[in-house]
Amino acid sequence: MQQKRIFLKDYQAPTHQIRHTELTFELGAETTVVTAVSKFSKIIDAPLFLNGKELELVSIKLDGKDLIPPDYDRSDEGITIHQTPTEFTLEIITKIYPSKNTALEGLYVSKGILSTQCEAQGFRRITYFLDRPDVLTKFRTTLRGSKKDFPVLLCNGNRISGKDLSDGRHEVIWEDPSLKPCYLFALVGGDLGVLRDNFTTSSGRQVNLEIYSVPGTQKQCQHAMDSLKKSMSWDENVFGREYDLNDYMIVAIDDFNAGAMENKGLNVFNSRLVFADDQVATDEDFFAIESVIAHEYFHNWTGNRITLRDWFHLSLKEGLTVFRDQEFSGDMSDRSVQRLKDVETLKLRQFAEDAGPNAHPVRPESCLSVDNFFTATIYEKGAEVIRMLSVLLGRKSFLKGMDLYFSRHDGQAVTIEDFVKCFEDTSKRDLAQFREWYRQKGTPVLEVSESYDPSDKTYSLKFVQDQTPAVLIPVQMGFLNADGSALYINHPDIRPNSDGELIFEMDQKEKVLIFNNVSQKPVPSLLRQFSAPVHLKFSRDANDHLLIAAFDSDGFNRRAAFTDLVRQSVLGAPFDNVEKAFGSLLNDKKISALLKATILKPTHFDEIIQTESTVNVKELSNRYRDLFQKLASTYRSQLIEIYTRSLGLNQKGYSTELLGERLLKNRALDYLSFDKNIPEEIISQAQTQLASAKGLSDVMSALHFLLRQGKGTRELQNNLLKNYSGFPLVLQKIYAAFSSQQNDDAFVCTREIMERPEFDSKNPNNIYATLRTFGLNTSIFHQGKPDIYGFYMDWVHRIDGYNPQVSARLMGAFNLVGKLPAENKLLIKDSLHKLLVKEPSANLRELAESVYQTL
Ligand code: ARG
Ligand code: ZN
Prior knowledge:
The chain is of the alpha+beta class.
């Protein structure tokens, strides 16, 4: 079946609206019968088309009268009812088979729990419906099922009533007072325990907070609960947004394609983003949970109360909500640290995507499969675009625009244009050029050069961008003196925004800033806090990089300077500058351990090669390893000192200080892992750390160290897999550690782990931990061996047979295909060809073909 390409420009308003929907589910894991009674209004005189996929239609009645063909037509995509009155009621009965649903969209079973995922187009796998975000309706839902199998029955909104039925079943009725599109519908049925708490909103509403998960795991949900409460008060304090229902429920399940889903009043989460304690979660996981709990909560306003007109505008809610969760996380810990982490994700995921076959604008114009829109570009670049807006307008004016957005569009399904218009109206600023960010794909390159003339004391900075038409790039900047102190020099084009940040608005193809009366060459610090998602190319003296790395008040640029030196050195520049920059950062007594450890995180190999047009993976990865080896041996004694002095820190606890110390300790270990001549006792200390650590961060850091030191024996692997066999979330981290090793064992281990009898390949987390991690292990995956690509593609094909969303995601491994040597391209082409002739799903085909076409 060929799926049709759909275009933004072809958008048409719905022909019908639904005033009310009454759903009844006779729940069973094997068979579920769904009765949908909906009141329709005809808006435009046209036939009624209802989406439906893989449904068994039992009956369909219009105003009580059975419809039979030719009253309607049926296809793989849905049914068309040729004639309808203006106002009418449809009753549709469908049968679905949850336990056979391996795609994990619609209604499915995860470890005995019935659960739904309707975004983007899963509702059409439950009943025939107007499955589009601009059809909003009120739902009342009756759930009936076995009291033994499904003692807990949940749905959106308020629980109206519950009663026992005959033959061991019971019934619960839910009513959601909010208008919502069907992609926000959810139901859950299962044997679940619950952790309860409550929150009083600023206007005094009492909200019951409930986190559901398998019985016995309630203690592991405490961190998620604390995060939820923090999110609720933060959104009140910062955005003035209050929660609007009496209950807020979260359910954790093990089998979930994505991270989590913001269904109205009933979030469904991948259990990986709920469960946290010393045994199953690293420090990073604690932060990730806080951020995703917040993300889904923030969607209640940005996504649910104000939703999308159509899926091309997905970034309207996702980019905005990521921006909000990033701001929240910054406020909860350390803003500079958060910014460094967010930019690293942006560069590794989004810049890579934007440079590859699946590059697309933040507001795409066409697609085959809506599922493929859930990308780093829609999420992360979308958030960057909003961040730029807030930098350009200043925080106060930005929030004024947000207020207008909330009041003007509450209850509506709108577009990105509607959003931008709010800021134009409140700030009175013309945002025509700013809108380019939504239309263009690819990462803009901003090239900067400088010159200083001591004779007439003029300094000039020249900016050139590669975009046509030019995009508006806010360049946050400052200057340093040669001794590292802050220097203030003025230029009419560098203006403070209302937050006091100095911003140069680069809005032309080319612009030169000239400064007069400057007595010595200033050292500019450009794009502070990464104020725009661009590749900054500034070729300047290495000494200036060193100065920035050592002294800049902007933590972000200290790391950026260090990274630039690392990159240059991997690409051939001398090593001594990296060594010096590293030393000045390592010995800095003024910054927190947390910030220091974050700045010093070894630059990811993928980030190094990002700006290269061709990449010899083998050669560059060797040079990369050599560089870190040299750094580690040069600073061996200091790194050992940092590592060993904090060894006593083998303790739990999540205060900022402890987190920082622990991160720095394990960062030192991270560098030491590169050292070829490491003292034996460090190795045995790491082995002790692995065996007896009290927290999982320490366990995982020790494991990564040992793997890089070549101590990843089969015995170690077997022991770990055995010891953690009751902890699937930990197993997934162990899988990922083995699949991300920087040697050929990565391939061997990935294959072996995936072939183990207990390996559940239907669980998306397991595939992401093994196969996806391996595919993103650039230096091993792309070393040019045919059996590696063949192995990967065989699995992709196999997974595509039961879960197209997961198989499609695996195409991300080929983002850098354009940079690879011809031999690799041929191998990839060959293996992709074999995949494409086997008729992959629409999701996979769209992405596989776009890779294929670049070869
Ligand atoms: N809306 C969800 C979130 O960002 C993600 C849902 C993912 N859906 C998917 N089809 N991949 O919070
Ligand atoms: Zn989201």
